[in-house]
Known about the structure:
This protein is an all-alpha fold. It has helices at residues 2-8, 18-33, 45-59, 64-72. The model has no long low-confidence stretch (mean pLDDT 81).
Amino acid sequence: MISICRDHAVNVKRWQDGQMVLRWCAAGMVEVAKQFRRVNGYLHLPALRAALEAEVAQTGTGSCEDQEEVEAA
């Protein structure tokens, strides 16, 4: 993504301000978005998220100190 944004903005000879940089970067990202591919199984991501949240709720959040004690044992 970064290299395509760089290639998209290579013709600008004089940057006027930060807003111009942001506009060109956004325009480059719009062009790059056309080339992105979907993740395999993306339709199942909501079910995965729900399962992970249920698992975290079941086990509790726990603190780092508790986890260190378990690792030490």
